[in-house]
Amino acid sequence: MTDISADRPYEAQFGDYFALLKPRVMSLVVFTALVGLLVAPVDLHPFVGFCAILFIAVGGGASGALNMWWDADIDAVMRRTRRRPVPSGRVAGDEALAIGIALSGFAVVMLGLATNWLAAGLLAFTIFFYAVVYSMWLKRSTPQNIVIGGAAGAFPPMIGWAAATGSIGIESVLMFALIFLWTPPHFWALALFMRSDYDDAGVPMLTVTHGRRTTRRHILAYTAVLAVFALGLATTSVAGPVYLAVAVAMNLWFLKGAWTIFRRDEDMAEADNFAVERAFFRFSLLYLFLHFGALLGDAALRAAGIV
């Protein structure tokens, strides 16, 4: 018998299309949007809330598909991204584009019909900002790419809040600021030990254009500003004792990590293969999850009449 499997064109599987939606990024979008929706001071029907989160998730996935379509050339160069569906050839670029556009329109229209058009408008702007402003412009043109582009990932709690209330409050603005200011130190820590990827792809990340020493200073500065806004959120109506305790502990630890990174030189980092920077990056994921989880904890305490 002759093996003809090698002659058959690859047919994309469900998992390939699901990976196109960046599920790990989508999980963060869903979680922060859910928190924004649940801590809002209104009673929302559970089915409406479920629909809102579903369509926000679809919109986040659409952004991922559009980003993978546009970034296929540089994704193919970077070790961290070369196995994504488009650069690996599992999904064609025009398929990714079509899926991204179709899901974007579906998500925005359905969110507007299910909740309100302010939330739908914010979702539409988020998709546009991530796919066009960040992916097509900022990412390849300025070392401030992740600073400005971080706004795209910061909108979900504001969208969730708007879906529930039909408005934008100071609470949702501070939740936005928490993610917006967290994004640069999170990604710059990654860039410190993945600099060669950005060098090879020609992406002007701060580590490439200004070097690791400058990047370390920026991580410390942004972490300090982040701590101020994180603690500021503790003074609003959505926060309580759980959030305050988490915010104080997490920001002290995050500042300590940023200070340690700032004091390290390249010889120290190379000697332990950027162990401190890698640990800071991993901790940054826990940092964001615990802040938003604490907001949920305080909401549960209020619902139970404990605070």
Describe this structure in words.
- The protein folds into 2 domains: 12-166, Tetracycline Repressor, domain 2 (Orthogonal Bundle); 169-307.
- Helices cover 76% and strands 0% of the residues.
- The N and C termini lie far apart (73 Å).
- It has helices spanning 14-20, 23-38, 46-70, 72-75, 93-114, 117-141, 145-149, 151-154, 156-165, 170-193, 195-201, 206-209, 211-233, 241-263, 266-271, 275-303.
- The chain is built from 16 helices and no strands.
- The protein has 307 residues and is mainly α.
- The model is unreliable at 1-8 (pLDDT under 50).
The string of secondary-structure elements, in order, is HHHHHHHHHHHHHHHH
Return the CATH class of the largest domain: Mainly Alpha
Number of domains: 2
Approximate helicity band: over 70%
Which value, in Å, is the CA radius of gyration? 20 Å
- The stretches of 5 or more residues where confidence is low (pLDDT under 50) are 1-8
Q: Write down how many β-strands occur, each being a DSSP E stretch of 2 or more residues.
A: 0
For the record, the CATH architecture of the largest domain stands as: Orthogonal Bundle
Silhouette: flat
CATH superfamily annotation of the largest domain: UbiA prenyltransferase
Number of helices: 16
Quote the beta fraction.
under 5%
The assigned structural class equals mainly alpha
Main sheet, how many strands, which sense, barrel? none
Give average pLDDT, whole number: 90
Distance between the termini: 73 Å
Query: What is the CATH topology of the largest domain?
Result: Tetracycline Repressor, domain 2
